[in-house]
Design goal:
By secondary structure, the protein is mainly alpha-helical. 54% of the residues lie in helices and 3% in strands. The strands form 2 sheets. It has a 3-stranded mixed β-sheet with strand order 3-4-5, with no helix packed on it. Its EC number is 7.1.1.-.
Length: 431
């Protein structure tokens, strides 16, 4: 076997120190090709699934079942006239979309597609992962944070008002929901005892973390939709603006770069959800079922891809089901609900882990203490004073609009008399 490559088994992370440079280059190229082809498929997949939900055919002309429609869209953007804004900062204007795409391509470098695999017709074995290190998940969060610069620079460099407003909205949205996402991932670090992606996958041999860490998983799922600017959180463009947010002044391939980054980020957050909460590349059956055949060789890569596209289906399902929120509702939900819930869950989980490991508290005693804490939390709710209801508004005063010789519109708290034509009163706010 060429090189000393250790399998990521038994809680030991894969060793990439002896990985040949050529193998790393080939895997990097394969990851880029995988992401680009997945984006083309994701566009077709989203349009087709939403079409099924809305009882319409969707793309069905180019290629079998419309599979070549995404390729036609890409060629249209490639051949479209490239318009540059006169007032734009030319260097930053061109750099912003490239920065967004470059940051989105970095995440899959530490995502494990599977265990160690052997290349057919050779004796060369290598982990189905580009690289890994002890703080791999922090690297993922850092790469996602760098992508924010592409958004804010794209809106600022355009030299126009609406792109700048869209960039500010989108940047605030991404940063806010990254906080909740990061807090939800802390729960996995506590349970797995590592921030290495391969070790986190190995820690889920008995149970996938989405079951014991259900609150953190729910927070992550909501946060990933908000961070990727997807419905019902697609708020870079406001309801009163017939523009496309920070991408308004971009056209042709520069617009395609932003579009590509959005779909790659969807794949990124889906892969992170699979790796940290859904068992990674492990088969969706109990460990040891049918021996180790389901979790060895090339088959785990299939399990990983199936899980990723299941999460991608959730993205599309949400888009075809929910309505867009108002921006203030969205930000209030992130700062006053998701972040406190995620932070509270981390505190509770940390206390539980300390009680069971450091303090060596028996499980029976721990359950009694937990039940007492729950009672102390719920008891005040039973005796909480009822909120006083607001007094009912007084009956509006009926006025004569023509008393002064000319019509006067009603003021707040006033109403017009009954209409002789329709026989009903006319409220003040209806005029």
């Amino acid at each position: 076997m060429n090189g000393v490559i250790l399998a990521a088994e038994g809680g030991v992370a894969a060793d990439f120190s002896a990985e040949p440079v050529l193998a790393s280059v080939v895997k990097a190229v394969l990851i880029v090709v995988f992401l680009l082809t997945s984006v083309l498929f994701a566009i077709w997949f989203e349009r087709k699934v939403v079409a099924k939900m809305q009882l319409r055919p969707g793309p069905n002309w180019h290629g079998p079942k419309g599979l070549l429609q995404s390729l036609a869209d890409a060629m249209k953007l490639l051949l479209k006239e490239d318009v540059n804004v006169t007032r734009a900062d030319r260097v930053v204007y061109l750099l912003a979309p490239m920065l967004s795409v470059s940051a989105s391509l970095l995440v899959f470098a530490v995502i494990p597609f599977g265990p160690t695999v052997t290349i057919p017709f050779t004796d060369f074995s290598t982990p189905a992962q580009l690289t890994d290190f002890p703080v791999a998940v922090l690297y993922i969060l850092a790469a996602a944070s760098v992508g924010v610069y592409g958004i804010v620079l794209g809106g600022w460099s355009s030299g126009s008002t609406y792109p700048l407003l869209g960039a500010v909205r989108s940047t605030a949205q991404v940063i806010s929901y990254e906080l909740a996402m990061g807090l939800s991932l802390v729960s996995v670090f506590i349970m797995a005892g590592s921030m290495s992606t391969s070790q986190i996958v190995n820690s889920q041999t008995q149970i996938w973390w989405f079951i014991p860490l259900a609150p953190a998983f729910v927070v992550y799922i909501i946060s990933m939709v908000g961070e990727t600017n997807r419905l019902p959180f697609d708020l870079p463009e406001a309801e009163g603006e017939l523009v496309s947010g920070y991408m308004t002044e971009y056209s042709s391939m520069k617009f395609a770069w932003f579009f590509l980054a959005e779909y790659i980020n969807m794949l990124n957050v889906s892969a992170v959800a699979v790796t940290l909460f859904l068992g990674g590349w492990r088969a969706p059956v109990p460990d040891g079922f049918l021996g180790d055949a389901l979790n060895t060789g090339w088959l785990p890569i299939v399990w990983f891809l199936v899980k990723v596209w299941a999460v991608m289906f959730f993205f599309v399902w949400v888009r075809g089901t929910l309505l867009r929120l108002r921006y203030d509702q969205f930000m209030i939900f992130g700062w006053k609900v998701l972040i406190p819930v995620a932070l509270g869950w981390v505190v509770v989980l940390g206390g539980v882990q300390w009680a069971l490991t450091v303090a060596a508290l028996p499980r029976s005693t721990f359950l009694y203490v937990a039940a007492g804490v729950v009672v102390l939390v719920l008891l005040p709710m039973l005796f909480w004073p009822e909120k006083r209801r607001r007094p009912e508004p007084a009956e509006p005063e009926t006025i004569d609009a023509f008393a002064g010789g000319y019509p006067v519109p009603p003021l707040p708290g006033q109403k017009l008399p009954a209409s002789e034509r329709f026989g009903k009163e006319v409220a003040g706010n209806d005029r």
